[in-house]
Amino acid sequence: MNEQKHNNPNEQKSLHEKTDKIIEVVGVTKVFDDVTVVDDMNLSIKRGEFVTLLGPSGCGKTTLLRMIAGFETPTSGKIFIGSKDVTYIPPHKRGINTVFQKYALFPHLNVFGNIAYGLKNKRIFDKTITDKKGVEKDVYRKFSKKEIEEKVKRALKVVGLEGYEHRDVNSLSGGQQQRVAIARAIVCEPKVLLLDEPLGALDLKMRKEMQLELKAMHKNLGITFVYVTHDQEEALTMSDRVVVMNDGVIQQVGVPKKIYDEPSNAFVASFIGESNILSGTMIADYNVSFCGEKFRCLDKGFEKNEKVDLVIRPEDIEISEQGQLEGKVIDVVFKGTFYQMEIATEGYEFTVQSTVGRKAGETVRLAIAPNSIHIMKKLRTTNTFVTVLDSDTSIELCGGSFEIINDGSLVKGDRVKVTIPFDKIELTDDESDGIIGVNVAQTLYKGSYYQVQIYTDTDEDFYLDTDIDWDIDDRVGLKIKPEDIILQKLEEENEEADV
Amino acid sequence: MIRHEKLKKVIALTFVYITLILMYVPIIILIIYSFTESRTIGNWTGFSVQLYINMFEDPEIMGALTNSVIIALASSLLATAIGTFSAVGIYHLRKAPKVYMDTVSQITMVNADIVTGIAFMLFFLIIKVIPDGFGTLIIAHTIICIPYVIMSVTPRLTQLNPNLYEAGLDLGSPPIKTMLTVILPQLIPGMIAGFALSFTLSLDDFVITKFINGDVDTISTYLYTKIKVKGVQPELRAMSTVILLAIMLILVFINVYNKIKKNKTTSR
């Protein structure tokens, strides 16, 4: 990244500036109608960086961007731009500009009028005068007509629309409108340019072209870019740093290569690129077991026999006689430069990419090198909640009443810690068949089963393992057998009772 | 089968024409007989524009006409301004209060004029600040026109890019300036339609006006008094024709304007 910066004429200045933070998000939480969209977020962005907020729709990335822009106010936490607290400063006083997903050009103005709009609002330092009392005062002035014309012209040149000044914005194509929207924002020379899925409305070819152009613009302008997208390829191609978000929480921050090679958890691994995500057990440092076999790996520092998630990229699996795993080819698809195969082994169906294709039905052996196995801590190993007994034989949980088996040690009103294993939770097609209704947030294929994350109406999360691939956003019922609910009485309650 | 279809078509068209004839024949007769001098309709005494000359020379008629135009202009301008801002306000409310406000703002449109009229009369009687006349008429007409402006402006708002206002703020414009330089220009077509609608409404209102006009005569109250006292004067035929033409012109203007706007947006 630093090498790239050497082309920049401001290099001398920007070298030390690059280390300071232009945006700082400190403990920011945003709650909309009782739903936490952004949860205690901490993030800092360096001057001149190209940072991408990446995540599925509804993960809070756009809300975070809108809070930086000033269109939303955080429920709690603070936002700093250039070390100034802007949490409650309205958008027109923030000195940063936004490129909106649907352009939001002003339909009653032509291209020139649109781009000049921001310049007409700007005041620039003119001179310092000394008033009668001898106090020095800075005088600000508007841009002159000529200056505006020049700046608009230059901005149009940057986005490749020279000579379009007098066009009606409604007569332009989507790509051209987006260029005008970018010109309108960069002409104000903002400290930070925020881009909210700016290429989302363009077709694939146009999008690829604009990706490269935006990247080049970032390099030439030296402005900090904060870019929001749900397209992982876009994020990896364009950014200096990627922030992967899910459910209002940052999952991982890192350079694109690190995010791809060393995803910090199963969510990041599944969201970025194609991957095989399995559950395994750490037998010892550098030793992991999965699919009934032991493998050497490069990871350590886990507890003995700790359950872990592990990711193996399809291109890292080799079909070879010396392979540790035996499998049967189920499906082969030729993808132009490689074959993609589904290979079923004991307990997991691997996706494998190879330049050599095998026939469906063939039995092969798979070799996985230690450096191809990336071990991740499990996001959660059990579902744990703290709640109270709403009767002697049931507990209140996420807005529902679940029956329990009470050995007689618990009475109504007792506070308990509830543990429910992943595989003991049952989802029902019909919401009314379950004890409570829940929404499917995401599902993750783990080879032989799906790991499903659901959220309740009280905004609690459950993880569960199931054989069925539930549709995301489906409304389903949830039930748990009384014998599968593990209860532990909480001690504090007793102390309180004693008092 | 084909004959059957044809018969259906003929019957349908017959109904349409009968309806149109019933609606327009009286008006057409009125217009035709405004160009003859006879005292009674049905007695053609030769073409003449004398009634029009009489009308324009009659100070009472011209006075009433001027009053009507002044009241209509003032109240529709006020209604357009207030209605536009109300529409923007209502549009940006949260869901529950929005539905509530939508309904509440439209009630006076369906309310019986006689109820509205009596309500205004009592209201102005109670507050006793403004004597019946121009003041009360302009206030009342403004209020009855506001829902129509809201109704014409709201569709424009729903078509706006939701980020437009934010884009204005983002480019350094304070909220009020953004409202005036970004949002308002988008609403102008709706505002013009609302203004024209208000103008015709105010111009031909009789029921509400009659309750609160004091000694100010508008066209409608003037006509009513005249007919009651002297019977139908021939000049009233000319006057009715003029009013009809004025309102027709406004309606044609609204329709043509909307059509041009529509063509422009669809060609984008």
Explained architecture:
The complex is a heterodimer of chains A (499) and B (268). Chain A is an alpha+beta fold. Chain A has 3 domains: 2-260, Rossmann fold, CATH 3.40.50; 285-377, Beta Barrel (OB fold (Dihydrolipoamide Acetyltransferase, E2P)), CATH 2.40.50; 383-498, Nucleic acid-binding proteins (OB fold (Dihydrolipoamide Acetyltransferase, E2P)), CATH 2.40.50. Chain A contains 11 helices and 32 strands. A 6-stranded mixed beta sheet of chain A has the order 6-9-10-3-11-12, sandwiched between helices. A 5-stranded antiparallel beta sheet of chain A has the order 15-14-13-16-22. Chain A has a 5-stranded antiparallel beta sheet with strand order 17-21-18-19-20, with no helix packed on it. In chain A, strand 29 and strand 30 (461-466) form a beta hairpin. In chain A, helix 4 packs across helix 5 (145-158), helix 4 (111-121) runs parallel beside helix 6 (174-186) and helix 5 crosses helix 6 (174-186). The longest helix of chain A is centred in the middle third of the chain and has 18 residues, at 204-221. The termini of chain A are far apart. Chain B has one domain: MetI-like fold (Orthogonal Bundle). In chain B, 81% of the residues lie in helices and 0% in strands. With 268 residues, chain B is mostly helical. In chain B, helix 2 packs across helix 11 (235-266) and helix 4 crosses helix 6.
